[in-house]
Specification:
single chain, alpha+beta, 5-stranded antiparallel sheet, about 25% helix, about 40% strand
Amino acid sequence: MDNLREKITYLQERRDLLAQKYLDLKLRKVKINIAGEYQGYLMDLMRKGLLEGYCFQTTETACLVLDGQSVIQRGNLHGGRRNYYHAWITLKLLNEEYAFDPCLNIVCKNSEYNDIFQPDIKGFVLAKEVLNMLQGKKNSTMTTDFTFKSGLLQGLLSNKVEEIYILGNNDVFSPMYRNNTGYSLEEEKGKIKKLDAHFYWSIG
């Protein structure tokens, strides 16, 4: 298989049901609002193919509720004539390592993912580092409901919510990489029980 889309389709058909069930359970209360255009539960948006193009924000959002040793991988997937710069998650379950790629709707054994895409890893970060960064921002919450469009900030005065706003950077090893997201969450005994993520348009 040389074509990127063929590789994606092949791995989608290799879906691991055990890992899928685990992810459905862990992510069942994670919602995403994508720039006010559409919103829903992460796993539902994944199945509908609506997360493609938001790989950095989505993997970082998912890792907030996954096991702290899960890893966000960032790099190039080989797709024949062109490479695809991308982010996905690797996690361990019952001594098996899996690849979870919410933006391409892939849940499979990591060995299969590597065999098909032969990824060139540029950077990575542990899930617990992403959570630690969010927790460190909790005292810097902002009340807002806005979008970035064409580099212009458009404020909306209604439906305001309190969010922990994260503006990422271009460090490929950063917990929040190229991110522009507001998070609102409910916690119980120090663990996130419900998470809403609002992906904003990038500036520029």
